[in-house]
Amino acid sequence: MTQDEQEIRQLIELWLSATQAGDVDAVLSLMSDDAMFLSAGQQPMIGRDAFARGLNKVLSENVIESTSEIAEIVVCGDLAYCRTRLTVTITSKHGQLPILRNGDTLSILRKQADGKWRLTRDANMLASAA
């Protein structure tokens, strides 16, 4: 495994743990300013600010726990893509039943001028696991 692949794996683990901890700033530090998120049936979410608003809203009422199985990482210069199988459990802070979603994701990462990998595009095909 190359150093770049290890760094991308670490980014994914940090993303999951920071999300579970409710550390929105840590999650935002892992993405480019112009990050774009694609989900079926939704308009693209563009930029850190839009992502922060959405994540803060969800975390105000819920806790998010996720696991990710990395199926593939391909690095080509300062671009990489990663394909994963993601499982997300959203648990209400108010006693409502948890929501379970799972599915595949495809993420594009770019190595920034500071030498760190950051997520720049993400498409997820999560669906209800009910």
TrEMBL record:
The record's InterPro entries line, in alphabetical order, gives: DUF4440, NTF2-like_dom_sf, Steroid_delta5-4_isomerase
**Ranges for domain DUF4440:** 8-119
Matches recorded under Pfam families = DUF4440
Report what the protein is called: SgcJ/EcaC family oxidoreductase
Protein species of origin = Massilia soli
The protein's superkingdom reads Bacteria
- State the NCBIfam families in the record: SgcJ/EcaC family oxidoreductase
